[in-house]
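Why does residue order matter? Because the sequence determines the fold. Keep that principle in mind as you read this record.
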Amino acid sequence: MASTEMDIDPPADSANGAPSAPTTTATPTSDTRTSTGAVAVRSIEGWIILVTNVHEEASEEDLQELFGDYGEIKNLHMNLDRRTGYVKGYALVEYPTQKEAKAAIAGANGAKLLDQTISVDFAFVRPPPKKGDNVGRGGRGGGPGKKGRERSRSPDEVKEE
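Structure:
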């Protein structure tokens, strides 16, 4: 029977500010960036990577063999075309830890699978903030230089001047 415990990645820093792991020159955020610069985000149960340009005749065993070298595969999903029964061209591979997912991305990105070069990157990302975006969340356009909309007045309210 499968374990119901969730694997948790160790935090980058503890509450007292001491690092929980040996310190490296790169920041934790830069380590989890995709090739486009977006920040990789953990799914509920693990780190999911997206494999694109998968050959239509590839099997789950082919992907298990390739990606099993980088760590324990928690889940592997390949969508099939309903009409033809062939792979649609992508697959999702889930690893329990970020370290394994990063190793798979670094090792398998650009690799050949059935004579096709595959691309591998994180599936879930938080896009980088755009210039001019408010850092805070919520609100209604009350940013610098913008005047919010006027408040409506009740019909019987009298303006005192």
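Residues 18-30 have pLDDT under 50 and may be disordered.
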